[in-house]
Amino acid sequence: MKEDIEKILIQEVEIKEKTEEIGKQMTQEYKDSFPLVIGVLKGAMPFMADLTRAIDAHLEIDFMDVSSYGNKMVSSGEVKIVKDLDSSVKGRDIIIVEDIIDSGLTLNYLVSLFHHRQANSVKIVTLLDKPEGRKADVVPDIAGFTVPDEFVVGYGLDYAERYRNLPYIGILKPEIYRGS
Ligand SMILES: O=P(O)(O)OC[C@H]1O[C@H](OP(=O)(O)OP(=O)(O)O)[C@H](O)[C@@H]1O
Ligand SMILES: Nc1nc2[nH]cnc2c(=O)[nH]1
What we know:
Elements: E1 5-10, H1 12-30, E2 36-41, H2 45-53, E3 60-70, E4 75-83, E5 93-101, H3 105-116, E6 121-129, E7 142-146, E8 152-153, E9 169-172, H4 174-178
Parallel strand pairs: 2-3, 2-5, 5-6, 6-7
Antiparallel strand pairs: 1-9, 3-4, 8-9
Helix pairs in contact: 1-2
The structure holds 1-O-pyrophosphono-5-O-phosphono-alpha-D-ribofuranose and guanine.
């Protein structure tokens, strides 16, 4: 698997340090509230697991699985719910945890949905932000790293469901895309 990677953009240790830093910030911000932290499957799974353990405050976790129509690398903008939340967001302070914001279409949909469901507040925390990909006006409250306008994999992010288990963020060799 590792031989498919052209370049590592963000090393495992950098992700770990950044996650600790964000966790400390969120510990301060949420020490007196009881937020509902929502991980967006599947990509946010590793970040969600590491980030929530870096927050020393009471919180509740839930997961939502949404998928966008279109092929793997170009989103069409339509989002459908594959798995909905178990809990109600009504009156709750919501923190959405994402692995990446690219076009912003997924988060645009989720933020509107949670407001529609009468959440008290909705905040966005993302490990990666790719501002050059933006099609919807979404600004994260906390972003770990800004990445260039390239397709990245690892630490939850896939290409054709592979590479999610890489411990770092990287770019694939071009022949991997050509071969599929
Ligand atoms: O800002 P956008 O352009 O909407 O892209 C961001 C979304 O794309 C990825 O999910 P994907 O739909 O590939 O599903 P996955 O998490 O299961 O891989 C990622 O995890 C975000 O949820
Ligand atoms: N794996 C992966 N999924 C994405 N979804 C939106 N942008 C990206 C990206 O750069 N990589």
